[in-house]
Structures are given as C-alpha cells and as structure tokens.
Design brief:
InterPro entries: CdaR_GGDEF, Homeodomain-like_sf, HTH_AraC, HTH_AraC-typ_CS, Tscrpt_reg_AraC-type_HTH. By secondary structure, this protein is α+β, with helices and mostly antiparallel strands. Helix content is 60%, strand content 13%. It is built from 26 helices and 16 strands. It has a 6-stranded antiparallel β-sheet, with helices on both faces. The protein has a 5-stranded antiparallel β-sheet with strand order 8-7-11-10-9. The model has no long low-confidence stretch (mean pLDDT 77).
Length: 762
C-alpha cells in the first residue's frame, strides 16, 4: 500500500518546523539591525550631550570675552598712546587686577592677556611682558608653533573666534576695542584649559568606549578626547554639511562607527569614533543563542515530526483496513488512500443528504396535499384521520379553527426583465415570501399550517383562546400587516379572504368555503382587499335600475353628452352599493345591464354598418378579462367616452355643412327683399331661434348685421364697377327704398353712398 498520506503529513510537519526556523532567522537579522540602529541612536544622544556641555562652556567664554572687551579699564588702556608715564604703570596694575578677576571666574581658562600690537608687549593676569618673553611663558615652542606664526596671528583682526594655535593650545581671540575692530590696536587672547575640557568629555561613557573629536568648519581636528590613535588616517571627508549623520569605515585595521553632530553656536562638528566590536559582542551573543535554538529545532524537532507523523497515520491505516473490499480494490488505482476515504465518505454523506432531502420534500408535499384535502373535506374521519395527522406531525392544541385564503395578483414589479427566472420559479419565490411573512405574523398568537390550494395560499389557523371577537380582530390585523409589508416592500398584490371561527375539525371545510366565497367577492369591491366573511353574510338582493334612468342614459349617449352620461352611470352604481352589500350575482347583473343600455343607445345612432364595430369588439374582449367590478366600471367609462366623442364629431360635421349652405344661400339672395330669418328656417327646416343662435356662433354676428354688411359690400362693388344710379343699386342689393339703403350704408361705412362714389372717382 502506498503511503502518500504519511509522506504528505511528514512534509507538512517538516514545513511547519521550518516556519520557526525562518522566523528565527528573520528575528536574528532584524534584531541585529535594530541593535545597530539603537547603538547609533545612543551614540548620537551622547554626542549631543557632549555638544550641549561644550557649547555652554564656549558660550560662557564668549560672554566673558565680550564683557572684558567692554570693560572701561580695558578700553581706556588700549586706546592710550603714551606708555612711558607713571600713570600707565598704575593703569597696567589695574588692568592686571581686572584680568585676574575674569580668569578666576571661569575654571575652563588657563590664562588670558591683552597684546598691544604697536608696542609689542602683553599684559597677563600677573605681569606685563615683551612679546618674546610672553611667547616663551605662555606658548611652549615644542607644541609646534613658532614665534613668527604666533606674532602674525596677533596682528590679525578677530571678532570673537576660537582657534587652535598648536596642539592642545586652543584660544579665544577678540580684537580690541570691539567698537573699532578693523583698526584695533590690541588683541584679547583667552587661553582655554584643554585638559579640563578633555576630562569633562572623558567622563561621558561615549568617550570611554572610543574617542571624541572636535572639528572646525573645515573638518580639521581642534580637540581630541580619548585614545587618539592615528586620527590622521580617518576619512573625515565623509562628514557632510548635514546637521548629523553616521557611517562605518576601517580604522587601525578594525571596523569603527563614526557619528557626528553639528554645533550651531560655532560651526564646529562633534565626532565620536566607537569600535564596532564593542556593541557587536552583544549581537554575537544573540546570534549564538539563536543558532543553538536552530540546532535544537532541526535535530530534535525533525525526529519528533517523523514520530508524530507515523503515530497520526495509524488511524488512517486502520480505517482503510476496515472499509469494504470494493474500496480496497479501488485502492489499486489510487495514489492517495486518504483522498479515497474522503471521497468515499463524502459520497456517502451526499447520498444520505440527498435521501434526507428527498424524503423531507416528499413529506412536505404529502403534508401539503393532506392539508389541502382537509380544507376541502376530503379526508377520512375517526382514527384514520388521527393517524394521518400524527404521521404528518399535525398537532392542534384547541378545537377552534379559521381559514385565510391569499389570492396572488400582479407581482411583475418584483422581478426585472432580464429573463433569468422562468415563470414557475418566480411564482414559487412569491409563495415563499408570502408564506414566511404571514406565518410569522399569525404564529405570534396562534398555531398556523400552510398549503397551496388551486393556485391560492391557504392558512389553517388553530385559534389559541376562546374570545371569538378578539381572535377575529387578531386575524384581520395580522392580514393587514402582512398585506402592507408584502405589497409595500415586495410589490406583490394580495386579496385576502377570512372565514369565521369554527369549533371542530368538521368545521374546517366550512371555513375554507367561507374564505373562498369571501375571496370571490373581490369582483364587486376590487382586488387588493381584505374581505372577512362577516362582510358578505347578508348581501343586498335588490337591483335599482329604473326605466326612466335607462332612457335618460340613452339620450345622453345619443346627444354625445359624456359628462352627463358618466354621471348617470355613477349614480346608478352608487345607489346600488351605498345602502347595503351588493351580492356578487347582482353586481354582475348591474354591469351587464349597463353594457346592454350602452349598446342599445349605439343601435339608435345614425351610423354606417362598420362604424364603432371595432370599439364594440374591443369592449367585449376587455370585459372578458376584467377581474373586478371596478375594472368593468373603468371599461364602461372608456367606451362611453369613445361613443360620445363619435357622436360629438358627427354633430360638428353636420354643423359645418349647415353653415356653408346657409351662408352661401344668403350671399346668392342678397337682392331678395324678402330674405329673412323665417324664410331661411323654412328653407333649411331648422327652428328660427336655433338658426339665429347658429349664425351668431358661426359668423360672430347677428343675422341682420351679417346680411346688411354683405349688401353694403355688394353696393360698394356696384358703385365702383358700374354707372348705375343709387336707386338702381338700392334695388339690386335688396333694400326697399333709398333712404333705408343710405342709412344702413352710412352706419357701416361712416359716409353716404354719394360721398363714397365721389371719393372713388377722385
């Protein structure tokens, strides 16, 4: 048997063993890096401490030098020109006393003196000496400075500078007087105590581990604290102009770490040089411990991994020995016995899950089918019913039952139109939503069982308390909440029928019939309603539809009066439903009567054989698809609008023809003196008052005004085109005498006919 699982687990354990090894190596490298960084940071901190200490000391020396430069005795002494008088000797003694007091106030000073350039002598804290003797006493020639170099340095101009005249010979120099430094006759020289400064630096741990340098602005050493070694071998060029930094290099055949910080006070740099081996010893010790841990991991953890892998593999081998011969035969073609066992167990588990799911689905289907038969009263009674209920886990805590029927309406808004679901799956999804929400609401106070019956969802509710009125109200409230949630959030239209409460199992079918009857009443009151059976127990069985109202409706339709016709239909409907519950049969009868009246009115219209035929067929088609009284009412109003618009268009067409005939007749008979409204009404067989209103509506003028204006226009044309007399024209335009013609002409034209003819001739 192949041991692929054993090898896999062994490799896995060894891989896990490698994880701490890799982590340990990473920790080693990271620790070394962090330790180096921490040492460098510590060196910089100590170096900043050195810088701060020395900067404060040098600042005190500068302050003392400035005070001395401004001392009145010093200024008076350096500004005098005669040095042979007795007073000069007294002034010299005063100056020595002042210098001695200044030197005593600062322990970092060895001595100080004022050098007179032109006189070539200097006044110290104890005496006055010539320049050569002063040089011999205060500046040892063996330190590498000559008298010439010293003398030249005394002649230069200084503005408070620190200088290194020779090795370990650091001085502070200031030209006097300070107010006229460019032509200063004297130079103040303060000699620093280099040994004391070095001792102060050496007390800091950094100088004890290595050396500390003070470099001037040109990176030249001014002071060295610690074992100097061959400082000249250091590559100080790597020290940049930045404020601080660090780097490593070889010095005296060993690795050193060089750190530096800059002083803002005097543009110096403080440099520390520490051998790397001082702090690398800690890193080496850490590395040794880590290597020891790695050794233990490999040479102890490795054998432990092999032993534990072998121990863990034993259950797998026993499981393979216990499986059926069929599985063992399949092992011949398998490279991994664990995967084979896993596949075998997964297949068995999947088969078991499938079987359980199938059984559960079948149980649910059978249970739902049993509930449907129970609602319709098609189940056995007695012990057979009790056994069936026990097998389907139907337990009723009380003997009080009610039935709710949910009719699913439009739910297209719940789904988009991408076609990802078929109609069956959409409907099942809708059933799932309605069932879960309603069961949760009804189940808060009662026991609920759900099934599907004839495309509707039925809820058999086992009422838990005896107050019938309260129980009915709870059912109605739960139905209202369910309808609000389902229609408001899921856009599923619901109509709900609720039965009365029945006291025994035998009453369940009666409850179902009541809920179904209540649900059918949606035809009268419309969809998306909650209809308790109490609402339709005593329906109205009388239909109000008098003959005079039918005739009135027909007349409104024949005359095209849509508003009046719609008001008549609305009055009939309101009268029938306002004083009681209209039964389903009477509701349908009322609709059919209204439709019959409208079709009867159409038959009396003067229309061709094909006019309104399409509309009538469309009406009949729409009525067959209506599901409620309200939908039929809407279709009746739409058809009424179509018919009345048709009648109105016919009336408008007739009025247009009448207008053309009447006006043409008037224009052709203007010369007829007997032309009158009566003669026109007789001619066109129209009532004279109606004809008068008609001419006013069509022309905007009364009959008399229209006829007179047309006669005046004809008279003007005759006067311009002919030489007929006014009397002849009067007769040709239908006036009985000239006076009447002249009066009418002047009324409409503002002048007489004679004046018009004269004006036309001009």
């Amino acid at each position: 048997m192949k041991r692929s699982v054993f090898l896999f687990w062994l490799y896995s354990n060894l891989t896990i063993l490698c994880i701490p090894i890799v982590i340990t190596m990473l920790v080693l490298f990271q620790s070394q890096h962090l330790l180096n960084s921490e040492v460098i940071r510590s060196n910089k901190a100590l170096l900043n401490q050195v810088k701060q200490s020395l900067d404060n000391q040098f600042k005190d020396i500068k302050r003392m030098g400035l005070q001395l430069s401004l001392d009145p005795k010093v200024i008076k002494y350096v500004n005098q020109t005669e040095f042979n008088s007795s007073q000069v000797k007294i002034d010299t003694l005063d100056l020595i006393t002042s210098l001695r007091s200044y030197a005593a106030s600062n322990g970092d000073i060895n001595d100080l003196y004022v050098y007179m350039k032109k006189q070539h002598f200097g006044v110290t804290t104890s005496t006055m000496n010539q320049d050569d003797l002063l040089f011999q006493l205060l500046h040892e020639p063996n330190k590498g400075i000559t008298f010439k170099k010293w003398s030249d340095s005394m002649e230069k101009i200084y503005f408070g500078n620190f200088l290194q005249l020779a090795e370990d010979d650091m001085v502070y120099m200031q030209s006097l007087p300070i107010q006229n430094a460019d032509e200063a006759p004297a130079t103040l020289v303060v000699m620093l105590n280099a040994e004391r400064l070095k001792a102060a630096i050496s007390n800091i741990q950094l100088a004890q581990a290595g050396i500390v340098l003070i470099l001037d602005s040109g990176n030249k050493p001014m002071m060295i604290a610690g074992e100097p070694g061959h400082v000249s071998d250091l590559d100080l060029a790597q020290i940049s102009s930045s404020a601080e930094g660090s780097f490593s290099q070889k010095w005296d055949k060993e690795e050193v770490t060089v750190s530096y910080v800059s002083s803002v006070e005097n543009e110096w740099k403080y440099v520390s040089i520490v051998p790397t081996k001082i702090y690398a010893a800690k890193v080496s010790q850490l590395r040794s411990w880590i290597y020891a841990g790695l050794f233990l991991c490999i040479f102890v953890g490795g054998p432990m991994s092999i032993w534990l892998t072998s121990r863990h593999y034993m259950p797998i081998r026993r499981m393979v020995d216990l499986v059926s011969p069929k599985v063992k035969s399949n092992m011949q073609d398998s490279k991994d016995e664990f995967l084979l066992l896993q596949s075998f167990m997964s297949e068995n588990a999947a088969f078991q899950d499938t079987a359980n799911t199938t059984i559960r689905k079948q149980q649910d289907v059978l249970r739902s089918h049993f509930l449907a038969r129970l609602l319709k009263g098609r189940v056995e009674s007695g012990s057979a019913l009790a056994q069936s209920m026990a097998s389907f886990d139907l337990r009723f805590e009380t003997n009080r039952f009610a039935v709710l029927l949910f009719h699913i309406g439009d739910y297209s808004a719940l789904f988009n139109d991408n076609g990802s679901r078929d109609s069956e799956s959409k409907l099942q999804y809708v059933y799932y939503i309605v069932t879960n929400i309603t069961e949760e609401l009804l189940g808060r106070k009662h026991t609920v069982f759900t099934t599907e019956v004839d495309g509707m969802i039925a809820f058999l509710v086992n009422i838990q308390h005896e107050d019938e009125a309260q129980a009915k109200q709870e059912l109605i409230d739960a139905a209202q909440v369910a309808q609000e949630v389902i229609q408001g959030k899921f856009y599923i239209q619901l109509t709900i029928g609720i039965s009365d409460i029945h006291p025994t199992l035998a009453g369940i079918p009666h409850g179902f019939d009541e809920a179904l009857e209540a649900l059918e009443y949606k035809f009268v009151i419309g969809p998306s309603q909650i209809i308790p059976f109490d609402r339709i127990k005593r329906p109205k069985n009388e239909l109000y539809y008098p003959l005079d109202m039918e005739r009135q409706l027909i007349n409104h339709i024949r005359t095209g009066q849509y508003e009046e016709a719609m008001e008549a239909v609305s009055e009939l409907i309101v009268t029938n439903v306002s004083d009681g519950t209209l039964s389903l049969q009477l509701g349908k009868l009322l609709m059919f009567e209204l439709i019959g009246t409208i079709l009867k009115a159409i038959e009396h219209l003067d229309q061709g054989p094909n006019e309104l035929a399409v509309e009538k067929h469309a009406l009949i088609k729409q009525l067959t698809q209506c599901e409620s009284f309200a939908e039929i009412e809407d279709e009746i109003y739409k058809f009424l609008k179509t018919v009345c618009d048709y009648v109105d268009s016919k009336k408008k067409s007739h009025n247009t023809n009448l207008k053309d005939h009447v006006l043409s007749y008037i224009d052709e008979h203007l010369a007829d003196m007997d032309l009158s409204l009566t003669s026109l009404s007789l001619k066109f067989e129209v009532n004279a008052p109606y004809l008068s209103r008609f001419i006013k509506e069509q022309s905007g003028e009364t009959f008399i005004d229209y006829v007179n204006k047309q006669r005046v226009q004809l008279a003007k044309k005759l006067m311009m085109d002919t030489d007929d007399t006014i009397t002849d024209i009067t007769q040709k335009v239908g006036f009985s005498n000239s006076n009447t013609f002249i009066r009418v002409f002047k009324r409409y034209e503002g002048i007489t006919p004679g004046q018009f003819r004269k004006g036309d001739q001009l």
